[in-house]
């Protein structure tokens, strides 16, 4: 059987893919509800957070994490639809990377070199690496279950992208608590934490999303 015939066969398979967008939205709602419960049990909003949202470095944290989640979510949907091209949505992943790169560059321009390392190390790096995956776990579980309705040709990759989305949302939620605002901290420790969730998504997705 030719590859094109196989793809057409998958597209006509009994596993429904048309409702994937709605299913993913419902899964996100459920996963975020679970993550909010965890946040309430384990963490608390940073003191003065509403006013702090006007600070550029804090806005950057939310701009990077939320744009990452949106781009990864769109890419994941394409990856589980037979015959769909994921290259277009995947290019959007360059947006959060570019925003973070600009933030890091600006930080290194306006901050004395002696303050770079303290900003990178921060105060709660270990907590960041631990708690972002914890906040991401309900979202990742719900999203992977929703994406099972699709038929990804590369389940590990689809799972990894789902993990990237969950990691972005978990990091955005953790940012409401985090007092480490340096883009250097975000690049390092948020990056490691989101990488852990992405790797977990790849490992779990390889099994859960296989068909």
From TrEMBL:
What residues form the membrane-spanning segments? 20-43, 58-80, 92-112, 124-147, 156-176, 188-209
Which keywords, in A-to-Z order, does the entry hold? Membrane, Transmembrane, Transmembrane helix
What domain of life does the native source organism fall in? Answer: Bacteria
> Matching InterPro entries, A to Z?
NrsF (IPR009495)
**What is this protein identified as?**
DUF1109 family protein
